[in-house]
Design goal:
This protein has 349 residues and is of the alpha+beta class. It has helices at residues 74-81, 118-121, 126-137, 142-147, 150-154, 206-214, 243-246, 254-273, 312-326, 338-346, and strands spanning 19-28, 53-54, 68-72, 97-101, 104-107, 156-157, 165-166, 170-177, 179-188, 220-231, 235-242, 279-281, 284-288, 295-299, 305-307, 332-335. The chain is globular. The N and C termini lie far apart (50 Å).
Length: 349
Amino acid sequence: MSELNNYDCWLTNGGGPAALVIREHLMPVEGHDAPVFPPTFAAGDGFPGGYNIDPPPSKDEPWQTPNVCLIDSVGSQANRIEPIFAEEPYCTLIPQVVIKVGEKEVNLLEAGHRAGDALVRCSELQEELHVAFRAVLQGNAEPLAKIAPTSLVFGAWDSRDTHAKLPRLASSTIRAFNVRKLSRSAQFVPAVEYVAEGLLEEAKDKKAKDAYAERGFIHVPASGTHGGVIATGGIRRDATLSLAALQLLKAGDADRTLALRRYVLGLSLVALTANTSAYLRQGCNLVQDPDKPREFHEVYRDGRREPATLSHEEAIAFASQAAKAFGPGESRTVQFDKSKAKADVKKKD
């Protein structure tokens, strides 16, 4: 079991590393040369929509254009990792704060903007969070860590109230390199020829035909749609824990500051070493590349890189000890307040 002071060298800037960096080489479950499906994005700001590939493939020789394709963004990775803290064995590391909205209950870990989310801001926690964010502005992150510690790990911005901003300490991104874009086509065939059998009238115009197609009554072709990419340059997850940013966190005094930093470090190490990349979406099921082991380094301010070793189990053990020493806040269920939401809508800076 890890000792509580084993990683104190990561918590002070007196010659210690500025960051921990993990690089994991991934591959589709079907094999290296199998297609993988990236996320698609809407068009806007000059982006045509579809896969995020930089630079866009050349029209003349797309297979020869070095490029990078986004497979899972920083925000998406955070949204996959953070919810593990609601499950065993992680749930005891943090307070479980649930907001009840009508008949629905939403864990704070599911709120898109974390402690700065409208759902939380317009609940019974409103005043308590306001005080906690004000404390952050005054250099004391402990009150917020008692309510929403993962907001310190994954970042939060109280953009609608105090404007307090907490940087993301733990970040992870998955990219594919030198991708070759594919397309695919399909044809929907209805179970019955509804028009030919006299079950439906012939469509008189495009509007009627579109309605038939939408409801599955006629043949519908889908040609040249997104067919995934083949990553000829491999797929990689790059994860970083910014120790330099963590070292800026403070509490009321030196002892509480150390306890806070140990606690947030423990949660960050759990997040950093968690393996949540296996299933990202339909057609994107990734596993470790057995031929390329994980790389884990301490990165120092002078650019020096030293090998680091820390298993996920060791991270959990340390986080458990650090949480016990820090004393997480209480778990609770609070009510969403409609009157607070109405007032929030009318509020002006």
